[in-house]
Amino acid sequence: MRTIAVIVGSLSRDSINRRLANALARHGADRFAFVNVRIDDLPLFNVDLSKEPPASVVRMKSEIAAADGVLFVTPEHNRSIPAVLKNAIDWGSRPAGQSCWIGKPAGILGASTGQTGTAAAQQHLRNILSPQQMVVMGQPELYLHWKEGMIDSEAQVVDEAVKKRVEAFLERFGMWVERVGVKSA
To answer: Distance (Å, rounded) from C-alpha 98 to C-alpha 77?
Structure first.
């Protein structure tokens, strides 16, 4: 079973993207072992600290390094990604030559209360991940227009149309990780 690091780009206690990530973990439990990677305790990136990074950074980087793939579940903030997510990406890329992102298969998805979901944020995230040398899955794209009741309190997707999209995403992501990922022993 492949291990997938899940990074949620929200600090909100009631994050709809955290709820979406939990639903993915529930629906994909037969295919993946999901590890929620904490990013809320990372200090703001400072190159002066990168040679001897704080323990929270070391922990995050080791969780990413141990994973077979990475899922980014992100909200959209002002038509881009949240600052906390960019901060985590910056920490993971340093010090130079010791990036945890290189070669990792990645998938991007997100939910928003806006009509376009997280389309703009996901495009920005793709632009940021490309120079990190991550191998980002192109299709299917999953931008969800969040509606209350879409996912229940047990992390079950109850909207049938959304459930089909989540299942298709997980199926293709599994194929993506197998195709482009480094085989673990």
So the answer is: 29
